[in-house]
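Researcher: Next entry in the queue.
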Amino acid sequence: QVQLVESGGGLVQAGGSLRLSCVASGRTFSNYVMNWFRQAPGKERAFVAGISWSAGNTNYADSVKGRFTISRDNAKNTVYLQMNSLKPEDTAVYYCATGGGAFWGQGTQVTVSS
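Model: Structure for this entry, 114 residues:
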């Protein structure tokens, strides 16, 4: 079992920044690919960003490329999502998950006002 707890969401104006954190406990965190997803009201959950276990590889949804950065600190069992130049369409509940979707956090709300 892996327990994931997200934090860092909130209300921000368009153009602002937030940094989300996801702390893992349980099995060895460094073994897992980690991903961020988001789900906007009335929409399906969508992939945002992913990072390999060594942090050597990252990938992003086209909609966030150049604005969001995923990183991880295996010593702290934490994965981050730095979100810059936020837009109203980034408003969603953001979830972290292990690769393959075996384990998910409870989500953190991000609201971007125009």
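Model: The two ends are 40 Å apart (CA to CA).
Researcher: Noted, moving on.
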